[in-house]
């Protein structure tokens, strides 16, 4: 089954058709299928020349299947049924979607939160296999996870070489370290960027180990590939034309919905692909995930197998390829390079400097509301946390958005204290009340502007590029918290908790240096702090 793109608005259908005609006149469909790196202009040509390998992954990735099959058989023979993926951004989002949709268990570590990492370590270590995935080989989060698991395995009397698998690009420092340690290494195509790597080794290795049918993914992608070279009936061309043309016409907020689709979590993957590919040079398309449309003039609703201004239907492998193609086409329409990420390294460099400098520059809170410290400019006369939220909402431009960025435990909802023997209803209420993602919903109903939510540092490898490189219309709310039971990173002069806070402060510096309004809320007690956040949001 191939992917179908259906337009449910006459004006959008007409705009997309007009843009497709212009693209076909420029032979974009033929040139992209042939890997023409000149499609995005002279400045983008050098980068594009080494970033178009994703077009052929439905074929070339099949060469990896025998090697992946050996890893799977070995893991099954050893009874290793707890698969942990240590990876960030493109190295984690696609496997998470693949495994969730296939209903096979995969523990994803794309966090520096010590509590979340401790729980993964405590879960069946004797039956754990860890996939360490990093394109560059130098990702600080993934390096930290590798070091922590190596030590845990050794302390348990387990040889790490029997439990760690590495996926990286040829020639990366991680490849060399893995060879020296005796770890199995599967090399990815170096001509594929991280966010376009769903059908590469980064997507296939952890998914296959977890039990997903990766051959079907490739088959489904291969079935749609011939259509992407056509002028007519080309779903990638149609979708890319719609995304790019709508954004140029002012509809640059892309609300992603997956409804009752059998594909679970695809909007999270699309969010990274589009935000990091288009959010630069003051331009971009802002993906909005997990939010109801506001029926605003600047919104475009895309449904995954569900109703929207445009509906995209089809199997997961084919969807991956079509959205990648569409994003590249949208970049052409917008006049940007869809393969670079000029602002991603800035927050990383800020974090490194902070860690090397010693004590973190925490600053002085302008307000303390119970277990919540408030840091930010122009808030000296704020009365309480509700007043802070009100001012943030009022600061959103007419064409802007609010981004909530939580450097907390992504699974913290299940850490809420509940009395022993409590009913299911009581436990559900407690978990919901302790989930900081609920904050987004409470704030969203108090504004007609989009409110996005990102877990830090996970979002730094996706929407982080858009926040800093996209249009100057965002307002940013950071949430950090005391680390509690922190975790040392072996061989490094910092803990996970310190790294997590340094990442937040580093990104805050990158945002404020651009004059983008940023407020940081620090929870001195995480459970009580989240409860106070939700209470204050209800008071707005």
TrEMBL record:
EC numbers: 5.3.1.9
Entry superkingdom: Bacteria
Pfam families from the UniProt entry: PGI (PF00342)
Pathway: Carbohydrate degradation; glycolysis; D-glyceraldehyde 3-phosphate and glycerone phosphate from D-glucose: step 2/4
Gene Ontology molecular functions: isomerase activity
Reaction(s) catalysed (UniProt annotation): alpha-D-glucose 6-phosphate = beta-D-fructose 6-phosphate
InterPro entries for the chain: G6P_Isomerase (IPR001672), SIS_dom_sf (IPR046348)
UniProt keyword annotation of Isomerase present: yes
Matching PANTHER family: GLUCOSE-6-PHOSPHATE ISOMERASE
Family, as annotated: Belongs to the GPI family.
Protein name: Glucose-6-phosphate isomerase
Protein source organism: Planomonospora alba
């Amino acid at each position: 089954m191939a992917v179908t793109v259906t337009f449910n608005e006459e004006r959008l259908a007409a705009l997309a058709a007009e843009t497709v005609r212009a693209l076909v006149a420029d032979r974009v469909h033929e040139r992209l299928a042939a890997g023409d790196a000149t499609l995005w202009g002279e400045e983008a040509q050098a980068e594009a020349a080494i970033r178009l390998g994703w077009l052929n992954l439905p074929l070339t990735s099949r060469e990896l299947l025998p090697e992946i099959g050996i890893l799977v058989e070995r893991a099954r023979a050893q009874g290793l049924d707890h698969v942990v993926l240590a990876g960030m951004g493109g190295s984690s989002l696609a496997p998470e979607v693949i495994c969730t949709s296939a209903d096979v268990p995969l523990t994803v570590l794309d966090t520096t939160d010590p509590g979340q990492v401790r729980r993964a370590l405590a879960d069946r270590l004797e039956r754990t296999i860890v996939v360490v995935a990093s394109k560059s080989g130098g990702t600080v989060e993934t390096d930290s996870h590798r070091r922590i698991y190596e030590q845990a395995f050794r302390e348990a009397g387990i040889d790490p070489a029997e439990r760690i698998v590495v996926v990286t690009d040829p020639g990366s420092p991680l490849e060399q370290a893995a060879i020296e340690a005796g770890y199995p290494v599967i090399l990815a195509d170096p001509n594929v960027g991280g966010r376009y790597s769903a059908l590469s080794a980064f997507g296939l290795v952890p998914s296959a180990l977890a039990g997903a049918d990766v051959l079907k993914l490739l088959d489904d992608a291969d079935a749609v590939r011939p259509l992407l070279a056509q002028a007519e009936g080309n779903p990638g061309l149609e979708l890319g034309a719609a995304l790019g043309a709508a954004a140029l016409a002012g509809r640059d907020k892309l609300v992603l919905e997956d409804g009752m689709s059998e594909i679970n979590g695809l909007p999270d993957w699309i969010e990274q692909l589009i935000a990091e590919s288009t959010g630069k040079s003051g331009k971009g398309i802002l993906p909005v995930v997990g939010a109801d449309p506001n029926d605003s003039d600047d919104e475009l609703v895309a449904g995954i197998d569900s109703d929207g201004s445009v509906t995209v239907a089809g199997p997961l492998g084919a969807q991956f390829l079509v959205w990648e193609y569409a994003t590249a086409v949208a970049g052409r329409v917008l006049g940007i390079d869809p393969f670079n990420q000029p602002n991603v390294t800035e927050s990383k460099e800020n974090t490194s400097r902070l860690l090397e400098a010693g004590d973190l520059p925490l600053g002085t809170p302008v307000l303390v509301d119970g277990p919540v410290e408030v840091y930010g400019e122009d808030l000296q006369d704020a009365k309480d946390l509700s007043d802070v939220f009100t001012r943030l909402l009022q600061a959103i431009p007419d064409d802007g958005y609010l981004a909530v960025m939580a450097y907390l435990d992504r699974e913290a909802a299940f850490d809420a204290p509940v009395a022993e023997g409590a009913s299911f209803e009581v436990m559900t209420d407690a978990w919901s009340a302790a989930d900081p993602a609920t904050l987004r919903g409470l704030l969203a109903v108090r504004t007609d502007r989009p409110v996005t939510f990102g877990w830090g540092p996970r979002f730094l490898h996706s929407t982080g590029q858009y926040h800093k490189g996209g249009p100057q219309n965002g307002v940013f709310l950071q949430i950090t918290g005391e680390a509690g039971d922190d975790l040392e990173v072996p061989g490094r002069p910092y803990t996970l908790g310190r790294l997590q806070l340094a990442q937040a402060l580093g990104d805050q510096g990158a945002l404020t240096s651009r004059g983008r309004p940023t407020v940081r809320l620090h929870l001195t007690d995480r459970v009580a702090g989240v409860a106070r956040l939700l209470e204050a949001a209800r008071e707005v």
